[in-house]
Every structure is written in C-alpha cells, then in structure tokens.
Write a structure and sequence with these properties.
By secondary structure, the protein is an alpha+beta fold. It has 2 domains: about 5-115, CBS-domain, CATH 3.10.580; about 125-170, no CATH class. Helices cover about 45% and strands about 15% of the residues. The protein is built from 7 helices and 5 strands, in the order αβαββααββααα. The chain has a 3-stranded mixed sheet with strand order 1-2-3. A hairpin with a 2-residue loop joins strand 4 and strand 5. Helix 4 (about 90-100) packs across helix 5 (about 120-145). It starts with a helix and ends in an 8-residue tail after the last helix. Bound molecules: adenosine monophosphate. Adenosine monophosphate binds near residues 50, 54, 80 and 101. Adenosine monophosphate binds near residues 55 and 104.
Length: about 180
C-alpha cells in the first residue's frame, strides 16, 4: 500500500492558508474543520510551512493568549518533511515516528496533492492486516477441504511432518489439526 491508495480513499482536499494570518485565525480554521494541522502556502503555491495544534498550544503556554494576534509565520515549522504518492506507507510511519509528528503533506513537482495523517496511516495498515488475515483464513480453509497442507508441497508425505492433513486422517491421526 502506498500514499496514492490513501489519497484515493480520503480525497485530496487540504486546508491551507497564508503566512500573514494570525494564530487566532489558525485556531478558528482548526476548529471549523475539525483537524489538527494547517499547511501554509507560499506566494507561488508551494508549501511554505506547517502549523499544528501543538504549535498553537506551545505559543500560548509560553506567551499567554496575547500571542494569538501574532502572525503564524513566526510559529510555523518551515522545514516541512513531505511525501510522494508512490511512497509506501511504512516509509511514512517511520518518518512520523523518527521526527515525532503526525502529518505529512504530499507534494509532486512542487504542487500540494494531499495530506496524510498518522490516523490515516494506521487506519490503512489495519485494513491491510485484516485483508491479509481474511485471505490466509480462506486459503487455509480451502486447503483443509481439499486435503492439502497450506505450506508443504502436495507431493511431500504429510505424515512425516506430523501436520494435520487428509493423509493424517487416513492413518487415524484425527487429533492433529491446523
Ligand atoms: P503534529 O504531530 O503534526 O501535531 O506536529 C508536531 C510538530 O511537528 C509541530 O511543531 C508541527 O509544526 C511539526 N510538523 C508537523 N508535521 C510536519 C512535517 N510534515 N514536517 C515537519 N514538521 C512537521
């Protein structure tokens, strides 16, 4: 699974604003959209920074509520780690864990294409594991019905491996199951 698969599911919409906006404007945007971070776009439409609820809390905690009048450009993170659509989700998980942030804008040829959060990545990973588990169960069920071992080649004498197969049952080993 890769970033493109996540964007296909969640869409490409990203809430953005400009760096002249105040921290109060940012707080309002976060609240209105029910999100945790805003991408700040530069003059040329490129990503100029990112600001999350954590930056907002830090600013208020350090300077008090008067800081809400200040421009976001003074508080945003300017060196933004971005993802590409072809990136596997494991890469995003590792970047987010290493840098301790929960959001990654997706950028292709300088253009903002979407945003992936840690929640999106976890949701996708869970769906992936569930699909793998279902497929494995179905395959094991099919093998059991057909009398094949799910892993050993059909030609291998199953009784040697001591694993539950039709061959075991023929020899009266119905106590063994898989
Ligand atoms: P978050 O976990 O997204 O709330 O962000 C935690 C901190 O990391 C905040 O200071 C953000 O500005 C910063 N941050 C969030 N996402 C990124 C990113 N993709 N690249 C660089 N910094 C980020």
């Amino acid at each position: 699974m890769n970033v493109a698969a996540i964007l296909r599911l969640k869409g490409r919409g990203v809430v953005t604003t400009t760096k002249d906006k105040s921290l109060l404007d940012i707080a309002k945007l976060l609240e209105q959209h029910g999100i945790g971070c805003i991408v700040i776009e530069g003059d040329n439409g490129k990503v100029a920074g990112i600001v999350s609820e954590r930056d907002l809390m830090r600013a208020i905690g350090q300077s008090g509520p008067k800081v809400l009048k200040e421009p976001v450009s003074d508080f945003m993170t300017k060196t933004v780690v971005t993802a590409r659509e072809a990136d596997p989700i494991d890469r995003l998980m590792s970047e987010m864990t290493t840098h301790r942030f929960r959001h990654m804008p997706v950028v292709e040829r300088g253009r903002l294409m979407g945003l992936v959060s840690l929640g999106d990545v976890v949701k996708m990973r869970i769906a992936e594991v569930e699909m793998e588990t279902t497929a494995t169960r179905e395959y094991a069920g099919y093998c059991q019905e057909e009398g094949y071992h799910p892993i050993l080649p059909q030609s291998m004498p199953h009784t040697m491996a001591g694993l539950g197969t039709k061959a075991d049952q023929v020899e009266g080993r119905s106590d063994v199951s898989y």
